[in-house]
Specification:
It is a single chain. The protein is an alpha/beta fold and about 425 residues long. It has 2 domains: about 220 residues, UDP-n-acetylglucosamine1-carboxyvinyl-transferase, Chain (Alpha-beta prism), CATH 3.65.10; about 210 residues, UDP-n-acetylglucosamine1-carboxyvinyl-transferase, Chain, CATH 3.65.10. About 30% of the residues lie in helices and about 25% in strands. The strands form 6 sheets. The protein has a 4-stranded mixed sheet with strand order 1-2-24-23, covered by helices on one side. Bound molecules: shikimate-3-phosphate. The site of shikimate-3-phosphate has 12 residues, from α3, α6 and α10.
Length: about 425
């Protein structure tokens, strides 16, 4: 059971099993990309089942600031009258991307080829995150981008210019950076080839391919794109695999749970965490049933399970799920070691430090290193914790709290609105009557 103690503190009273079937809100990453793609297309696109969090609202409001006509028909359905990016008009003020790295990095690539200047900025967390990883490859294509007061950080001043297709080596495997380069490449003269050190999420490639863009996947880490146009489209966004991870782990660690998540996105680069949980002993059955604009979807059935610790080598494919996997590890038997997780330090909070602190406040033994996290599983205790303004930390702590007998208070709960504003509604529905 959950109780809002104030606008920013949530009390979770456990332990309550989760039972039933649920459809979770649309995928955040796919919604961002569909919004941008619909602005590139010329004509009317319709996106249903959009993600509901603040991050996606920022992509939407940034596009509107640039003159794109977007209309809502219901909470999660929108229609966009795309006129192509060449019809964008300059914004009178800085474009506010809030907490959303995907909005800021992707729009930097989109606007690099415009005919005007734009300033892209965000909240304090986003302004402290590294932007060189997206600025450097775009500069290779001829983009004219300057930093504000701090080199390497937003705000970014993007002075629109004609881009040249180039061979780009991305330094850090990143779906956001790759998407920025793809949207820039779609507007550049000639061929752009993008290479990354390891495969990152491929929603942009799947969408552009499905919409007829001149894109070729050479290998898992190499893509080519040329300037071209895309068709308007209709999309019912698959359920968000990263939001689902919170309910999946909640069901696994809360005895007596049995949950089926329906119409969930099953992109292999987003559900690696399911394989890892299965290695830890999780009873999860995935059933792929359909495809939407290149994205596989289906249902996932989860039963509470005794987990055991293991070694987890991180990759981009699970980086967002490490906070919730850390909660799974806290309830598992034995030790779980996360390796090569330095990237956690530049997420919405320094997640190596915030996870160590907050799981520690629930009585979990955590040992952190420069790029590692070792969690000694056992029986965590309820307590008072903080989100540090990080949505995935807030949601992960609420999942732990639901599995603990007693009351846990999460300060800074409103951070959850960034990706999963209805988490409490969904958790209360699945635990109602238990
Ligand atoms: C995202 C890519 C990942 C992920 C983020 C969303 C995307 O970030 O952590 O939550 O939508 O492309 P990086 O590109 O920084 O790895």
């Amino acid at each position: 059971m959950t109780t809002h103690l104030s606008s920013d503190a949530l009390r979770v009273s456990g332990c309550r099993p989760l039972r039933g079937r649920i459809q979770i809100p649309g995928d955040k990453g796919i919604t961002h990309r569909a919004l941008v793609a619909s602005a590139f297309a010329e004509g009317e696109s319709a996106i249903k089942g959009c993600a509901t969090g603040q991050d996606v609202r920022h992509t939407r409001s940034v596009l509107q600031e640039l003159g794109v006509e977007i209309q809502s028909s219901g909470l999660q359905s929108i229609s966009i009258n795309g006129q192509g990016v060449q019809s964008f008009s300059p914004s009178q003020s800085a474009l506010d991307c809030g907490n959303s790295g995907t909005t800021l990095r992707m729009m930097t690539g989109v606007l690099a080829a415009s005919t005007f200047n734009s300033e892209l900025t965000g909240d304090a967390s986003l302004r402290s995150r590294p932007m060189g990883r997206v600025v450097d490859p775009l500069r290779l294509m001829g983009a004219n981008i300057e930093y504000g007061e701090v080199a390497g950080n937003a705000p970014l001043l993007v002075k629109g210019s004609a881009l040249e297709g180039s061979a780009i080596e991305i330094s850090v495997s990143s779906g956001q950076v790759k998407s920025a380069c793809l949207f820039a490449g779609l507007q550049a003269q000639g061929l752009t080839e993008i290479n990354e050190p390891a495969p990152s999420r491929d929603h942009t490639e799947r969408l552009l391919e499905a919409l007829g863009a001149p894109i070729e996947r050479v290998s898992k880490t190499c893509i080519r794109i040329e300037s071209g146009s895309i068709k308007p489209f209709e999309l019912n966004v698959p359920g968000d695999a990263s939001s689902a991870a919170f309910l999946i782990v909640a069901a696994l660690i809360t005895p007596g749970s049995l949950v089926t998540i329906e119409e969930m996105g099953l992109n292999p680069l987003r559900i690696r965490y399911i394989e890892l949980l299965k290695n830890m002993g999780a009873q999860i059955v995935v059933d792929e049933t359909d495809e939407r604009l290149g994205e596989p979807i289906g249902s996932v059935r989860v039963e509470s399970s005794q987990l055991k610790g293991c070694i987890i080598e991180a990759s981009e494919g699970i980086i967002d799920e490490i906070p919730i996997l850390a909660v799974a590890a806290a309830f598992a038997q034995g030790e779980t070691e996360f390796r090569q997780v330095a990237e956690l330090k530049v997420k919405e909070s320094d997640r190596i430090s915030t996870l160590t602190q907050e799981l520690g406040r629930l009585g979990v033994e955590v040992e952190s290193g420069e790029d590692s996290l070792i969690i000694n599983g056992g029986q965590p205790q309820p307590g008072q914790v903080s989100s540090h303004g990080d949505h995935r930390l807030a949601l992960s702590l609420a999942v732990a709290a639901n599995a603990l007998t007693g009351d846990t208070v999460i300060e800074g709960w409103s951070a959850a609105d960034v990706s999963y504003p209805d988490f409490v509604v969904d958790l209360d529905r699945l635990t109602a009557g238990q």
